Amino acid sequence: DMIVVTGRGSHLKEMTTLSVGRHFSGFFSEIFHAKGYSSDGSSKPKSQICLEQGAKIIFDDDPVHIIDCASAGIKVIVRNQPWNQVSLPSGTFRMVSFYEVPRIMYEINNK
Length: 111
Fold this sequence. Notes:
Order of helices and strands: EHEHEHEEH
Strand content: 15-25%
Number of strands: 5
Largest sheet: 3 strands, parallel
Helix content: 25-40%
Number of helices: 4
Strand order of the largest sheet: 3-4-5
Distance between the termini: 22 Å
Oligomer: single chain
Radius of gyration: 14 Å
């Protein structure tokens, strides 16, 4: 199963669900909203959600979530963006294009 762990606030839950459904219909089994962006304060850090759900790899572009997840042993595929040009911890893999995902997945699975 593939899940969405989003940094979008829970106040955007309906819009997020509609957007994911429109662009990725049937692809993801569930959507989770991460801590720091939840309007009701009930959510958890992305790393905790990933660990509870058994996720071993996450795509992210926010340095806060990248470091959080990598520190928890979750592999992070980082979509290269101007705001994440920081030194990243081990367990992270930068990509410029989604065409790089198969190569990165191969690299992750063969380490």
